[in-house]
Each structure stands twice: as C-alpha cells, then as structure tokens.
Write a structure and sequence with these properties.
About 40% of the residues lie in helices and about 15% in strands. It is of the alpha/beta class and about 400 residues long. It folds into two domains: about 15-260, 3-Layer(aba) Sandwich (Aspartate Aminotransferase, domain 2), CATH 3.40.640.10; about 260-385, Aspartate Aminotransferase, domain 1 (Alpha-Beta Complex). The strands form four sheets. The chain has a seven-stranded mixed sheet with strand order 1-9-8-5-4-2-3, with helices on both faces. A three-stranded antiparallel sheet has the order 12-13-14. A two-stranded antiparallel sheet has the order 6-7. Strand 6 (about 165) and strand 7 (about 170) form a beta hairpin. Helix 5 (about 110-120) runs parallel beside helix 6. The protein is globular and about 75 Å long.
Length: about 400
C-alpha cells in the first residue's frame, strides 16, 4: 500500500516509451511523418477499424469526425448531458445546434429511450447523434443506431474513455454501429501521448476528408488537383481546414503505449475488482457504479455512487477529507446543459437522470501505477471521512 498522494488518474511511462520517443528525436521527422501512419495502422489492427486517422487531441477528433460527416450550420446534434463539454462544443464548432439527451441515472449513459426523447424534443430534425461511452462503459449501440438512422443522423461515438473495452459486437472503435468513433490520449486516459486524438471510421471518404481537414484543407496528391501539370511543388487548399495534426513524437509514445493496452486493461480490471470488494457492504450509501451487461470494460474512471445526503455530508466535505488522507478525487461530470454558455443558449433543461447521476458520483483514483492495496487504502479513508 503506497503512502504517496494518489491522484484520480495519471500516465504510466516505461523505458520502452522513452526509447520510442528518443528514436523519433534522433530521426528525420518530428511533426506528422512515418510514426503517425504506423500508429494509425496499429490502431486499426487493435480495434478492427477499417480506417484510423490521428490528430492533435480528443476535441479535434470530435470536430474532425463531425466536419467530415458534413455537419454544418443549422443542423442539430444530440449529445448526452453527462460528458465533457468538448462533445457538445465540437458540434457548435461546426455551426450546429445541440439538443441534450438525458442519461441512465445509474450508469450515466445515453440509452435508446433518452435518445428517442431528445429526437422528439428536436422535432425529428437531427443530423448527428453522439453517444458517449462514459468511464469505459459502452452505450447500447445496437439499440441506439436504428433510432439515429431513422432520424437521418450520422452516428459518432465519443469513445475517449473506452479504448480497450470489448462489446458483444467487437472492440470499441470498430464502427460496427457508427459512422465514426473518437479517442483521446490525454495523460489521464488509459493510453497517453501527452496530447493526442484519433478518429476511426468504416468510410474511406470520411477518412480521406479527415486527412485534408486536419492539415489546413490542403490536397497534396497530384491526381486529385484541379490543375494537372508537372509542378511538384503544387498543392491546393480545397477546404477550410485546420492545423489539427499529431506529431511523430506524440505518435511514437502513443504507439508504444498501445502495445501495452492488454496489460493496462488487465491492471485496471484488477484494481476495479479490488474496489468492488472493498466497497462491499457499504450500500446503499456507497456503491460501485452500475455495470453494463456484456461489457468487458477497460475502465477509464472508477466512479463510486455516493448518497451524500444520507451520510449527512456534502461532496465537497468528502473530497476535502479524502485529500487530507492523500487521496485525490474528481467529479465526472457537471451536466453540460447546466454550463452558463449552454444555459444561456437553450435555457434550463430538466434532465432527471443526469441530475441524479451528477449529484451522487465521485471518481476515485484509478490508474495502472497504483499498488494492489491502494483501493483498500482509498475505501478505508472514505469510511473514516464518512464515519461508515
């Protein structure tokens, strides 16, 4: 059992990761070069996705996936209220309006029922649906996809929490029930690149459009130019794109980390099982997040459900008490619909499932470098703080 401070999440870097980055630094490419394509190919193999395209972070992955799918001004995107705000913001970057869907109160996930409710509130006028695979658990995509298709919407899975999770329809990111899926490689995620993101898709045209948009909208393939002349320097800006590229330095680190995904998953599952055991007997005041049947989940977060009111404590008091014991926690997430920007744009929205989930969730430390006994340390501290 460690005595050091436990943050809620952190990266795990080994010598192989350092060597991979050093090799790039000693080579000819620092920005987008061969290491990026090698990482993309490895990610395709790991997820079963036909196409993977890397980019600068998880937010730009969402932006690129939506822009490449044609989402634009005046369109409507449905986003669950429980997510990081980037999911909704990416739709707004494209000029679309957002309709927030409620979530299951016990898992925080969009469901077929909450999606249908949001579609109805949107008047059936929907161009994109963005299910969020929260904490590493996956939405019921076989139930969600038909509703989205019936509304005429593309489906973009926000999979930033769920790399490594296996479902009955395969690995997260294979796009079996979606047009695209997006990933993040922020240091608190399972795989770290410092910053980094990626889009998987089954559509070759979407992958090609992402390649163009992530690099200023520039087309360098002479066979695709309007001007077919022998001028090797010639390039054409064929769309208004952005500089959303990933560097070879980041790609090398992410690729090295990807090789350890199976070990990372096993470690996170073992730590989650230790938490589950340590929390046994504390229900209904404290209990693990409800688990989704059929998910072989690689949890990004260990979210505990806590009835703070029943314990006679505020969440702030519990978080402060845990910090005094050297334990960091976080809240994932404040409903995005409650953020001042969105409340000013759309008004106050009553989403009881999101409200219930938000008011009772607290993310406890979960990362590969924790010791076997650290979950017990965290729960024992929680018992002391809450007098359980």
């Amino acid at each position: 059992m460690s005595n050091s401070f436990l943050p809620y999440g952190r990266q795990s870097i080994d010598q192989a990761d350092i060597d991979a980055v050093t090799d790039v630094l000693r080579g000819d490419w620092l920005t987008t070069g061969p290491a990026v394509r090698e990482f993309e190919q490895d990610f395709e193999a790991a997820t079963g996705a036909p196409h993977a395209r890397a980019c600068s972070n998880g937010t730009t992955a969402l932006h690129l996936a939506l822009a490449a799918s044609g989402l634009g001004r005046g369109d409507v995107a449905i986003v669950p209220a429980i997510t990081f705000m980037a999911t909704a913001n990416a739709a707004r970057y494209c000029g679309a309006e957002v309709v927030f869907a409620d979530v299951d109160a016990q898992t925080g996930l969009m469901t077929a029922a909450t999606l249908q409710d949001a579609i109805d509130r949107a008047g059936g006028r929907v161009q994109a649906v963005l299910p969020v695979h929260l904490a590493g658990q996956v939405c019921d995509m076989p139930a969600i996809e038909p509703l989205a298709r019936a509304a005429g919407a593309v489906v973009v899975e926000d999979s930033c929490h769920a790399i490594g999770t296996t479902t009955p329809w395969g690995e997260v990111g294979n796009c079996a029930h979606a047009d695209a899926a997006t990933f993040s490689f922020h240091p608190v995620k399972t795989i770290a690149a410092g910053e980094g993101g990626l889009v998987t898709t089954a559509r070759a045209d979407t992958a090609r459009q992402i390649e163009i948009l992530r690099s200023h909208g520039i087309e360098r393939d002479p066979g695709r130019h309007e001007r077919q002349e022998d001028e090797p320097w010639w390039h054409e800006m064929q769309a208004l794109g952005w500089n959303f590229r990933l560097s070879d330095i980041q790609a090398a680190l992410a690729r090295s980390q990807l090789r350890r995904l199976a070990a990372f998953k096993a470690r996170r599952q073992a730590l989650a099982a230790a938490y589950d055991g340590a929390l046994d007997g504390l229900a209904p005041v404290v209990q693990p997040i409800a688990r989704v049947p059929g998910n072989d989940a690689c949890l990004h977060l260990y979210a505990a459900r806590i009835d703070f009111a029943a314990a006679g404590l505020t969440r702030s008091q519990v978080m402060s008490g845990l910090r005094e014991h050297g334990i960091g926690t976080q809240v994932h997430y404040i409903p995005v619909s409650d953020q001042p920007y969105y409340r000013a744009r759309y008004g106050q929205i009553d989403l009881p499932g999101a409200r219930h989930y938000y008011e009772r969730t607290l993310s406890l430390p979960l990362y590969q470098g924790m010791s076997d006994d650290d979950p017990v340390r965290v729960v024992e501290a929680l018992k002391m703080v809450m007098a359980l």
